[in-house]
Amino acid sequence: MSKQALQYLSENREHLLDRLHTFLSIPSVSTDSVHKKDIKAAADYLESYLNEIGFDRSEQQDTGGHPLVYAEYNQAGPDAPTVLFYGHYDVQPVDPIEQWKSDPFKPENRNGRLYARGSSDDKGQVFMHLAVFEAYMKTEGKLPINVKVCIEGEEEIGSENLYKVLHDKKEQFDADFAVISDSGMVAENQPTILYGLKGFTGIEINVTGPDHDLHSGMYGGAVRNPIMALNHILASMKNEDEVVTVQGFYDSVEPLSENERELIKNVQGENYEESTGVRQTVSEKGYSAKEHTMARPTFEINGMYGGYQGEGTKTIIPSTATAKITCRLVPGQEPQHIQELLEDHVYQAAPSGVTVDVKKEKLSAKAYKVEPNHSLIKKAAESYTKAFGKETVYVRMGGSIPVVEWIEDIYNMPIILLGFGTPDDRLHSPNESFPLDSFDKGMETLVHYWENVK
Amino acid sequence: MSKQALQYLSENREHLLDRLHTFLSIPSVSTDSVHKKDIKAAADYLESYLNEIGFDRSEQQDTGGHPLVYAEYNQAGPDAPTVLFYGHYDVQPVDPIEQWKSDPFKPENRNGRLYARGSSDDKGQVFMHLAVFEAYMKTEGKLPINVKVCIEGEEEIGSENLYKVLHDKKEQFDADFAVISDSGMVAENQPTILYGLKGFTGIEINVTGPDHDLHSGMYGGAVRNPIMALNHILASMKNEDEVVTVQGFYDSVEPLSENERELIKNVQGENYEESTGVRQTVSEKGYSAKEHTMARPTFEINGMYGGYQGEGTKTIIPSTATAKITCRLVPGQEPQHIQELLEDHVYQAAPSGVTVDVKKEKLSAKAYKVEPNHSLIKKAAESYTKAFGKETVYVRMGGSIPVVEWIEDIYNMPIILLGFGTPDDRLHSPNESFPLDSFDKGMETLVHYWENVK
């Protein structure tokens, strides 16, 4: 019965916040070997908390790097679904420390927010799940669902060992669906279903002309300028209407349905002038900025360089020019295939007199999407709305979460992203915080969700 | 009578080379204040040499920077022309010193070449003129022409003060024509008339998009990428046929005459693969590489940068992108006008969603050209051919020599470039040298020339 669990959460709020403070006080910065002991302490904390809650099995597993906390609960009965819960206990470094208004590892409540490194990303959100499990066990003596817990300590350093672990222990992690709370809502108190993430792929283009920088007076007119050659190549890949002109790029893109356009329309748009300083948004012809960022593929030059970069002039024809490109992909686009299309285009567009070399970036990911009317999604939306008292909006995101693609890739299970962060949480920055209101309503959402799916 | 002067030069070769060694031994590096005394010593050397030769007036003049050596000879009579002779006594630094096979300031003869910093650029060539004047004075007691000598000490640091001096002392430097020996021949022992230089002008383009680098997942699709915007602008300025597509760019370019195309055809082309490593030359449609480098304007991107330049990927939309552009100009093209055409084009080509700013480079110069059939040029060619025993070729150069433009600008007098350097002289590099053969034949050329023009 959800009532009892909710009552427990409400009556034990101070106790639970105290426990959370203890967890947040451990400086589990994964990137710095100075914090190796703290990483271990955070894993210990989770292992013993899960034990105490009453999980059948709770242990630290070796990954080759920082330990992964694994726990299982199997007492919900054979008819209850099994959920794989993923989170991470490591946090970002705190530099620049002088910009923090309070100690990042002495959690402080100010103006309705809990300030601490990891309060939002992701220790705070991990803790909410554990607190909800505690509430069920303390009141009903059991959980409504079977659970496999996977909390890693390397997310902030690229989850270096996770893919291998997930791949090698298929039986251990297999479940009916996965739940991840490591994302956010589009605005504070605006329940948000994140039902899609983009994939990505990238290439680097190197153009070589002469074997050293040349005097532009002596050789201008005889030698192709590699920077200009690269300009011609790149300008042929996306036009001024923001349409990618690489042949086949859009071929397998699923068209945006009227239903999705409607869902996107319902999301309150970002104030781009405020957040980016641009006075005018520019997006693919035929699509709004919201539609393009959420649901259409993109092509970006992330960096470009060649020749002289100092003050004033240096009259040279440079020897080389380089551009780094990444594309954000949508469902249907195969990263390796898109890389090949980009590569083919570059070689075909290369003008004479220069040598063009394309390097394919190794890291790439497929896009992820759950149908917004999937029953697990609908139930999540209902749970959000019930807890927050507000209609849930549906969004897709331009970014990528590697673990989502990996779970999808290895297990092919639905992944439900139940995020409770807000745009003001300052993840990875000084003064990270999390609204206490989200803490309460988030836990309530989880209770409703387990009741809904059990 | 030229015979006597030539005989003197031949009989006194060792004596003259000794004098030249002394001059080259002075480390008159203009860029380094450590060498201030040496700069003075080189100016002293010239002042006293000119005095000794018998110039009516020889003195060091204050420029605000390093002194300028000025001397006059007015005894050739009212019918003889007055020549302004320009050269420079300062030299480039010698770094990296460890790459020199002999001390840069202890001149050494090896394999028919004189090795020393300044042996070609420009102390060696200045000395040849003084030696010829000495020869005339010692044998005939007079020079065949009236001479104004202007030897500066700041050429290697951009002739910082020369324009003002030339401008402020118009009467002092005024002459019938100018002679400069600070350039080279297209090949050793290939007498070469350099009858044209290109001018130049430049702009810098800055494109600003968002006010900070953005996450390409969150904002890709909403914000114009400044690097791509710059690519579209630049690709619209020159096409793949190497034709500049900026409106009006070629409007006032003098067409290349059949006569000039013939002159250019006679010049042995450079082996571009050897000197630049490119396997294929690329030049303006309708023109050969020789024609384009010598006699057609060019447009080069000297440098371009924006966004991430490190290893691997960084998935950002950069905040800014910059390109540095210079054009080499031909006679008829007004640098300021061309700058304006470039600027107008850039602003018109700028796509929406970014701010584009054009900075006009201050330093610019008009092209310079003497008609190849000008009598002073024809006489120079005859003198070269007589001394070197080989037909003289006519070339124009893609580079610029600022003093040429200044003399042209202020005095509007013909300027004859009598250069004797060779492509192997390694100007500005370790192991600078000058062929002793060029030393002898160059002085002979000068004697013939003075006889021809007197």
TrEMBL record, chains A, B:
One of its GO terms (biological process) is proteolysis. Residues 195-352 form the Peptidase M20 dimerisation domain. Keywords: Hydrolase, Metal-binding, Protease. Pfam families: M20_dimer (PF07687), Peptidase_M20 (PF01546). One of its GO terms (molecular function) is metal ion binding. Transmembrane segments: none annotated. It comes from the Bacteria. SUPFAM superfamilies: Zn-dependent exopeptidases. NCBIfam families: PRK07907.1, PRK08201.1, PRK09104.1. This is Peptidase M20. The lineage of its organism: Bacteria, Bacillati, Bacillota, Bacilli, Bacillales.
